Amino acid sequence: MVEHLGCLGYGGLQAASVFAKQVGLTVPKTAITNNPEAAEKLFEEAENGRAIFKTLTRLYIEPDIVAYTAEIKREFPSAFQTSITRSPAVYQELVERKSNLRITVVGCKAFPVRIASQIVEDQKDRLDWRRCQGRNELYSVAE
């Protein structure tokens, strides 16, 4: 999946998704919304009926809490309607994967890194590798 909302903005995310599809990468069904009905609809469209929630930007809550990617249940949109309407967020179909790729492009040169987050024990860490980003065994140069 191609993403970095901080750099791309809303329109850039769509452009990156189109590019990702063209080169054969998996692009999950996505809704950037503060509309509970749109978030609920994502569950209907998701092939496996599972979805995740991401904040649009990193969210730090004092003193040292970070809001990471989390799997949400089908009941979430209806149970948290008021909270959802307060701020847009990213709702995505959960895609099972073997690893994450982060590709940095400088000029015409690409630097791919594989993040093997699926080797960790805790399901939460598998959803968002940033929870355990200090574990060096997760990273390798991708071929």
Q: Helix content range of the residues, please?
A: 25-40%
Number of domain units: 2
Q: Specify the number of helices.
A: 5
Order of helices and strands: HEHEEEEHHEEEHE
Please report the total strand number as a whole number. 9
Please state the average pLDDT score.
Answer: 80
Low-confidence segments, ≥5 residues, pLDDT <50?
1-8
Q: Termini distance?
A: 17 Å
Q: Which word captures the global form?
A: globular
What structural class should be given to the helix and strand makeup?
alpha+beta
SS strand fraction? 25-35%
Characterize the largest beta sheet: strand count, sense, and whether it forms a barrel. 4 strands, antiparallel
Adjacency order of strands in the biggest sheet: 1-6-2-5
Write down the Rg. Answer: 16 Å
Question: Can you put this structure into words, describing what you see?
Answer:
By secondary structure, this protein is of the alpha+beta class. The protein folds into two domains: 96 residues; 47 residues, no CATH class. The protein is built from five helices and nine strands, in the order αβαββββααβββαβ. The longest helix is centred in the first third of the chain and has 18 residues. The protein is globular. The chain starts with a helix and ends with a strand. The N terminus is likely disordered.
